[in-house]
């Protein structure tokens, strides 16, 4: 009788629950480092928040001066933005598909004094860190992006903030995962079972939860009953939903060629289209886009770029952002020693994909988290022990 070798920690069998951009990229990184992966998702891979996103890589606009966010979120975002050029180049080389990575700059514009003050706050944070960022008056902003309204109060040029075609990225990852001999995609929910005090997924050595806002809703079979995965780590219960509606329009020569931010509105060129977002709707998880909300977004965008007033809408959609209490992801080992989580990326899932894959692969293959990664452990959401 031959005895199957027990997998070592350097080549574990890993079950991943959730095949969005985070699950796909973690699967690929872990498989490249020697792990064998089963990637479970009952829905079409990559068609949730990863598909709905606009593809912004925007550390400065999203994290430099946002009240209430994790104190190290900006560092994490900057670090991941620095990884993006190499990450995109490798993805393109390996898949043979372009992913539309465009480094900065993008322009954040102000149409009112409150937004202008917000831009000053971002500039202040950038300056303290020695990072580039230029305040432009409206004429200088229009020299960069002629489609902007002459009525704006000014702009901030953000060298750190760019974009990528998130749908192309997801498609490239899916291709690479499907091709990889050590990755199996299963179109089913992850089979999770309670075994005494431990959690099992069909004998895999480790489990990674990457199901975004649905992470806490994953089910575990216990004594024939379906119970919530939250029972194994209550931090998963702290991922709330923030719906967002968006649209794309046919991009004309008089429409923006630059990524623009204007308070809650953004515009991102994607091929022959311009993506315009987004509403922010706490608690919303599903639903068709609402005609009035979409008209409102387009009308707000046309205040910034007047030529959008008669733009032809090509598509509308909605997505769900998964948000933790400090709007930063949960990354790392959970209270269940064989279970890890990478979820809760909120508005920054595309931006944070490279650093997430790196942190998760390091930790699941045995490395202790460093200072930055350790700051995003899911245990921060647990009540402090007396
Ligand atoms: N990343 C932009 C958004 O979540 O709307």
Topology:
Blueprint: E1 13-17, H1 21-32, E2 36-40, H2 49-52, E3 56-57, H3 59-64, H4 73-95, E4 106-110, H5 113-128, E5 134-136, H6 138-144, E6 154-158, E7 162-163, H7 166-179, E8 183-186, E9 193-195, E10 198-200, E11 206-209, E12 219-222, E13 225-228, E14 240-250, E15 260-262, E16 265-270, E17 273-277, E18 281-282, H8 291-304, E19 313-323, E20 330-333, E21 339-343, H9 353-364, H10 371-374
Parallel strand pairs: 1-2, 1-11, 2-8, 4-15, 11-21
Antiparallel strand pairs: 3-7, 4-6, 5-6, 9-10, 12-13, 14-17, 14-18, 14-19, 15-16, 16-17, 20-21
Helix pairs in contact: 1-7, 1-9, 4-7, 4-9
Short description:
With 386 residues, the chain is of the alpha+beta class. It has helices spanning 21-32, 49-52, 59-64, 73-95, 113-128, 138-144, 166-179, 291-304, 353-364, 371-374; strands at 13-17, 36-40, 56-57, 106-110, 134-136, 154-158, 162-163, 183-186, 193-195, 198-200, 206-209, 219-222, 225-228, 240-250, 260-262, 265-270, 273-277, 281-282, 313-323, 330-333, 339-343.
């Amino acid at each position: 009788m031959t005895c199957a070798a027990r997998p070592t920690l350097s080549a574990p069998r890993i079950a991943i629950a959730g095949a969005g951009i985070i699950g796909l990229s973690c699967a690929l990184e872990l498989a490249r480092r020697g792990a064998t992966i089963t990637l479970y998702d009952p829905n079409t891979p990559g068609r949730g928040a990863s598909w709905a996103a606009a593809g912004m890589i925007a550390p400065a606009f999203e994290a430099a001066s946002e009240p209430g966010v994790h104190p190290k979120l900006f560092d994490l975002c900057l670090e991941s933005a620095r990884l993006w050029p190499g990450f995109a180049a490798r993805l393109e080389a390996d898949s043979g598909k372009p992913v539309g990575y465009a480094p900065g700059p993008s322009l954040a514009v102000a149409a009112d004094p409150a937004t202008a003050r917000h831009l000053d706050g971002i500039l202040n944070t950038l300056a303290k860190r020695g990072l580039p960022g230029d305040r432009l008056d409206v004429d200088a902003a229009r020299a960069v992006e002629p489609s902007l309204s002459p009525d704006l109060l000014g702009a901030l040029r953000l060298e750190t903030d760019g974009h990528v075609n998130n749908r192309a990225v997801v498609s490239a990852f899916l291709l690479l995962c499907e091709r990889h001999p050590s990755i199996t995609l299963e179109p089913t929910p992850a089979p999770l079972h309670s075994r005494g005090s431990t959690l099992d997924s069909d004998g895999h050595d480790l489990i990674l939860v990457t199901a975004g806002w649905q992470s806490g809703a994953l089910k575990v079979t216990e004594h024939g009953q379906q119970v919530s995965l939250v029972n194994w780590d209550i931090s998963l219960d702290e991922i709330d939903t923030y719906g967002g509606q968006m649209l794309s329009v046919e991009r004309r020569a008089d429409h923006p060629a630059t990524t623009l931010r204007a308070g809650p509105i953004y515009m991102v060129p994607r091929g022959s289209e311009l993506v315009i977002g987004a509403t922010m709707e706490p608690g919303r998880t599903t639903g068709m886009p609402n005609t009035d909300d979409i008209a409102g977004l387009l009308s707000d965008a046309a205040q910034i770029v007047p030529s959008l007033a008669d733009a032809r809408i090509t598509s509308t959609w909605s997505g769900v952002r998964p948000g933790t209490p400090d709007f930063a992801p949960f990354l790392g080992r959970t209270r269940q020693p064989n279970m890890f989580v990478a979820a809760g990326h909120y508005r920054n899932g595309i931006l944070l994909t490279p650093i997430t894959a790196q942190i998760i692969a390091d930790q699941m293959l045995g490395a202790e988290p460093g200072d930055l990664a350790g700051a995003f452990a899911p245990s921060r959401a647990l009540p402090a022990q007396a």
